[in-house]
Write a structure and sequence with these properties.
Radius of gyration: 33 Å
Structural class: alpha+beta
Strand content: 25-35%
Order of helices and strands: HEEEEEEEHEEHEEEEEHHEHEEHEEH
Strand order of the largest sheet: 4-3-7-1-2-6-5
Shape: elongated
Length: 409
């Protein structure tokens, strides 16, 4: 069966009769969370809402005033998942989420175009594709693709869009002899369990392909194609080529411009100079960090010298600007195991690292309580306990714990 949504991809609403309505439970995404919903599976005589298939996600929309959470295909029927039942024989009005439909149409028709040009120009066959919420990709049967090849394909695709080539859908009866269909590619877009009439989507002079999805009527409706980048597939000797089409190109450009404006305000320099300016900032930061590490090493040696001369039972030190290396240097330079050392580094109101060093019994007694206070978890090895902590704002309470432990001895 060819659904109304496949007869006319630009049809936004359609009224049809309910032929079945059965209780069901299904998975849905609500406010970004995966939830199980008790509801009903509704099958209509025909539908304007596209069921998932051929790599294309299903439409979203409404049956009367009820949201449709999912539309799936079972044989030649489209199953709509809703929360409340309809009576068999009722007329219900289906309305699609047009922005989602248009986006899916642009990505799907654009994928046909990209795949056709890739195989025409370089013999790179598309073995699968993925229509993502933000970015899509085609998986190519080649171990690599160069940037020059990507640019070449992109230029051809956009030139064909400017030529506003027609996109035509022909429908063949399911009993059509196979030899009449043998020239149409079908591996990518026709579901394995497809039954009923066969649709062939043709981009004039470019490509003819069996497909069940919704498509634009003219390549000009794709607006533009941007091939983003490629990367190796998980499958051996295959490549993923990522792309944006239509409104997604415009949305990406808008986001890039907003980021550029923010960077211009922060860096106070012309956008053309942003890369050079950021590179200088990175180099300066690396130089400053290197100098800071040198200073912290000297500071660790200085503190170790004080510890060497100490007559106290314990030594406590926190440096917010230091890192675990600072503590290791201090301990090594001091070489004192007879004095209990409570060392910490990190944000005084947030996360950091601690080391307890010295008497093993004291470490065993104090480490659980200190970790509880500082929100940490660590491990001891001999006379050294190390932990990552999340709440250094309780550092004073931990210090008090150490002082009370030794002052009572």
């Amino acid at each position: 069966m060819v659904f109304k949504c496949q007869e006319d991809s630009f049809l936004k609403e359609f009224t049809s009769k309910v032929i079945s309505c059965d209780k069901s439970e299904f998975d849905a995404t609500v406010d970004g969370k995966n939830v199980k919903i008790n509801g009903y599976e509704v099958i209509l005589e025909n539908t304007v809402l596209f069921p998932e298939g051929g790599g294309q996600p299903c439409d979203h929309g409404f049956l009367n005033d009820q949201p449709v959470y999912q539309v799936s295909r079972r044989g030649d029927k489209a199953v709509h998942f809703v929360e409340k039942p309809f009576n068999v024989g009722d007329d219900v009005k289906g309305v699609i989420d047009w922005n989602r439909r248009l986006d899916n149409m642009q990505q799907h028709s654009g994928q046909h175009l990209i795949s056709a040009i890739l195989i025409r120009e370089f013999k790179f066959d598309t073995i699968s594709w993925y229509l993502g919420e933000e970015v899509s990709y085609v998986e190519l049967d080649t171990p690599k693709i160069t940037q020059e090849q990507i640019d070449h394909v992109e230029n051809i695709c956009n030139e064909l869009i400017r030529e506003h080539r027609p996109v035509v859908v022909d429908i063949f009866d399911e009993n059509t002899p196979p030899e009449k269909l043998e020239n149409y590619r079908s591996a990518r877009d026709l579901p394995a369990d497809h039954v009923g009439d066969i649709r062939v989507v043709t981009i004039e002079g470019i490509d003819s392909n069996m497909c069940c999805g919704t498509h634009v009527a003219n390549l000009s409706q794709l607006q533009a194609i941007k091939l983003l980048h490629s990367e190796k597939s998980k499958r051996k000797d295959k490549v993923l080529l990522y792309f944006l089409i239509g409104n997604r190109v415009i949305n990406r450009l808008n986001n890039c411009l907003k980021r550029e404006q923010k960077l211009t305000a922060l860096l106070k320099t012309n956008p053309v100079q942003h890369p050079e300016f950021v590179e200088k900032l990175i180099q300066n930061t690396k130089s400053l960090n290197k100098n800071l590490q040198t200073v912290l090493k000297d500071l660790a040696v200085y503190e170790a010298a004080k510890l060497k001369e100490s007559k106290e039972k314990y030594f406590i030190l926190h440096r917010k600007e230091a890192d675990p290396t600072f503590m290791s240097i201090l301990i090594k330079e001091a070489g004192r195991t007879d004095i209990f050392q409570f060392l910490s580094v990190g944000d005084e109101k947030g996360a950091g690292n601690i080391v307890l060093y010295g008497n093993e019994k004291a470490i065993t007694d104090l480490s659980p309580n200190i970790c509880e206070l500082l929100g940490g978890k660590g491990a001891a090895q001999g006379n050294k306990f190390q932990a990552k902590v999340t709440n250094l704002s309780n550092h004073k309470s931990a210090v008090k714990l150490v002082k009370e432990y030794f002052d009572q001895k």
